[in-house]
Amino acid sequence: MIAFVFPGQGSQVVGMGRALAAADPISRATFEAADEALGEDLSRLCFEGPAAELSLTEYTQPALLAVSTAAARFLGRRGLRPAFVAGHSLGEYSAHVAAGTIAFEDAVRLVRLRGRYMQEAVPIGAGAMAAVLGLDRASTESAVAEAARETGQVVSAANINGPRQIVIAGTREGVEAASARAKALGARRVVPLDVSAPFHCALMAPAEARLAPALQSLHTLDPSVPVIANVDASPVQDRARAIDALIGQVSRPVLWQQTVEWLANQGVRHYVEVGPGHVLSGLVRKIDRHAEVATFAEPKDLPAVEALFSAVAQ
């Protein structure tokens, strides 16, 4: 079986989607639909930048959604469809568009709001995120719990990306204290992340509350294929639970390691990272050493994806 996985914030790059739009009318129409839905030239920002503007959260999120959707449609038109889909943070929206749960135009408008609300939830500079490398989950969670207790600040695990790769988020003071504690417990490295807000922690509760009514008012359908939710790494197969999971993921950690482990337990050994970058490909390989992964971001990537599908069919 094959799963499509969709990247989240951090995978954006100037020029993404340009080759897809040039080669495929459906992909081109996807970018045109995004421009119309937002009332601005999002496609130009994807294709030409500037990078600083593309990296602003409220632009990054719809831009990545547009590129991932264009890529998934390109594959779908060639009969290349997955048994499961999953996405990392923002990528869960791309997964639901691919599964037909949410209309693309609605999703583009929604993730623009999501990005704006997440950015506005915490004053710039007040929050922080850091990647803790080389330390197991139990020790990392011990570090953040001790830092929160000692400082009285918010800090918690935000992304469980792999057995020894966990991102933490919270106030700047809380993250700095947790980072120091993680190093003392044996972390190989703690890398501060260049982000504009502390995502997937309790500080995002105001953003979650603002986004919930917009999500609940959407017209949705049951997913055509199971979507593995970030909040609990379990399959979503009905529209009501899909919305609940998308609301909850704003302030709760992304359980990416558990997502890949769940897919592996279902017999998935082949993955396509659909969208720009190779972040998820690397994480999947670290979680499941037996996994075979291809990436698809532009037409030149198609032969590798077709080879993956052929291998599964044999």
Describe this structure in words.
It is a single chain. The chain has 314 residues and is α/β, with parallel strands linked by helices. It folds into two domains: 2-121 and 203-313, 3-Layer(aba) Sandwich (Malonyl-Coenzyme A Acyl Carrier Protein, domain 2); 127-195, Alpha-Beta Plaits. Helix content is 50%, strand content 16%. The chain is built from 14 helices and ten strands. The chain has helices at 18-23, 25-38, 42-48, 51-54, 57-76, 91-98, 104-121, 137-151, 172-184, 205-216, 239-248, 256-265, 279-287, 302-313; strands at residues 2-6, 84-87, 127-133, 155-162, 165-171, 189-192, 227-228, 235-236, 270-274, 292-296. The strands form two sheets. It has a six-stranded mixed beta sheet, with helices on both faces. A four-stranded antiparallel beta sheet has the order 4-5-3-6. Strand 9 (270-274), helix 13 (279-287) and strand 10 form a beta-alpha-beta unit. The longest helix is centred in the N-terminal third of the chain and has 20 residues, at 57-76. The model has no long low-confidence stretch (mean pLDDT 96).
